[in-house]
Amino acid sequence: MRTKVVIIGSGPSGLLLGQLLTNAGIDNVIVDRVGKEHILSRVRAGVLEEGTVGLVDRAGVGERLHREGLPHDGFSLTFDGRDHRIDLFDLTGGKRVMVYGQTELTRDLIERRERDGGVVIYDAVNVVPSGFDGDHPHVTFEKDGVTQRIDCDFIAGCDGFHGASRKAVPEGAIKTFEKIYPFGWLGILADVPPVNHELIYANHPRGFALCSMRSETRSRYYVQCSLDDKVEMWSDDRFWDELRRRLPAHHAEVMVTGPSFEKSIAPLRSFVVEPMRFGRMFLVGDAAHIVPPTGAKGLNLAASDVYYLIEGLLEHYQEKSDAALDAYSARALSRVWKAVRFSWSMTTLLHRFPDTGDFGQKIQEAELDYLTHSRAASTAMAENYVGLPY
Ligand code: RFL
Ligand code: PHB
């Protein structure tokens, strides 16, 4: 088989890139190691920047997002029993974010690809990208016990943190930057109305908590937990008790609880590889970088990578120039590092670190106090939260 671009990974970055290529008439094939049902069962991000929404619109997949998504003009930081609202709209001169689940976005992208007759090869085993350092890149895999090979012009490694693309790069050609945080997030989904009409990021002596949502009747809540914790250790009752204790009383008292239908623990890490291009293979999204979810940046960075890569691929095929492809890695990384910095700083500001000590604790309190009293500090937070320009 031959195509122009093989996309490894059918997550949001692979599907979005595939749709933008298809819309431009550029043949592409997506290969994923799991099946559609599995992909649609993953619960992840919930906050989309305007740039991400714009890219989804450009792909022609934004109809349901605009109908069902919840535009948010601000969010609350709570600490010391009080609320401090970050007024995103006011502080950024009219920008907001959209709350819409990654699972729903992925469903919209898959349905659109199916309608267009785009190829996705699910349940592919042993996916290996090769030949990308020369002129004959190709991807091999096994499907139903038969080895297959797809030759192409370019490979897009959209296969997430545990994917095959990054692993195929020779060790000496890639540099890794990593920070592991000493805690995780325990998250639940429950069909109860959100405790607040906007997100609440809570700093509390018992640990961080986040109140988010998927709709007016579905809440997504998180509490900072120990890396040794297992989901089985957290009954729904224990979760609700802990969440309530980490919120100011006026929120805790009105919180509606109910049975959860999803519960999982995610470790927190910051991770970046440089460069993001290796000959004719490009790394995109989580394959190249991971951020802790505190700044809601993971999915949005995957989208900005796609933005830079599609620009390069369109220029290659339509204008016979490789200037934008050559600039891909540097342009993407420049935005990635700013989001890595922001996610790290929000994580540092809001969580309890086991080894912080009194000095670290005082610095955190001073930082929160500064945020509440300085429009400049709040503006910097808002500007990063809504997403820096592409
Ligand atoms: P994805 O979504 O991980 O998709 C990668 C796809 O590649 C496939 N794959 C392979 N295919 C072929 N061969 C292989 N060897 C393969 N290995 C993997 C996978 O099956 C999958 O279909 O990466 P992508 O597209 O770059 O998208 C990135 C986002 O998914 C990610 O940044 C965010 O979800 C991160 N993230 C969160 N971000 C937020 O902004 N807010 C959140 O609340 C949030 N929660 C999360 C998260 C990521 C999590 N992970 C990765 C465990 C919670 C979790 C649990
Ligand atoms: C979510 O809704 O899952 C969510 C929202 C904001 C974050 C992280 C996760 O910062």
What's the Cα radius of gyration? Answer: 21 Å
Q: Give the cofactors and ligands.
A: 8-demethyl-8-dimethylamino-flavin-adenine-dinucleotide, P-hydroxybenzoic acid
Spans of at least 5 consecutive residues whose pLDDT stays below 50 are: none
Largest sheet composition: 8 strands, mixed
Provide the CATH architecture of the largest domain: 3-Layer(bba) Sandwich
Global geometry: globular
Mean of residue pLDDT?
A: 97
Q: CA-to-CA gap between the ends?
A: 35 Å
- Beta-sheet strand percentage? 25-35%
CATH class of the largest domain: Alpha Beta
CATH topology of the largest domain, by name, is FAD/NAD(P)-binding domain
Structural class category: alpha+beta
Number of strands: 20
Assembly classification: single chain
The CATH homologous superfamily of the largest domain is termed FAD/NAD(P)-binding domain
SS summary, helix count: 12
Count of folded domains: 2
What helical percentage do the residues reach? Answer: 25-40%
Looking across the biggest beta sheet, what order are the strands in? 6-5-14-15-16-13-17-20
InterPro entries: FAD-bd, FAD/NAD-bd_sf, HB_mOase, RIFMO-like
GO molecular function: 4-hydroxybenzoate 3-monooxygenase activity
Keywords: FAD, Flavoprotein, Oxidoreductase
Domain FAD-binding: 2-343
What can you tell me about this protein's structure?
Helix content is 36%, strand content 27%. The strands form four sheets. Strands 6-5-14-15-16-13-17-20 form an eight-stranded mixed sheet, sandwiched between helices. A six-stranded mixed sheet has the order 8-2-1-12-19-18, with helices on one face. The protein has a three-stranded antiparallel sheet with strand order 3-7-4. The protein has two domains: 5-44 and 103-177 and 269-346, FAD/NAD(P)-binding domain; 181-268 and 357-386, D-Amino Acid Oxidase, Chain A, domain 2 (2-Layer Sandwich). By secondary structure, the chain is of the alpha+beta class. It starts with a strand and ends with a helix. Residues 8-14, 31-34, 39, 44-46, 102, 127, 158-160, 162-164, 266, 285-286, 293, 296-299, 302 line the site of 8-demethyl-8-dimethylamino-flavin-adenine-dinucleotide (RFL). Residues 2-343 form the FAD-binding domain. InterPro entries: FAD-bd, FAD/NAD-bd_sf, HB_mOase, RIFMO-like. It is an enzyme of class 1 (oxidoreductase). Keywords: FAD, Flavoprotein, Oxidoreductase.
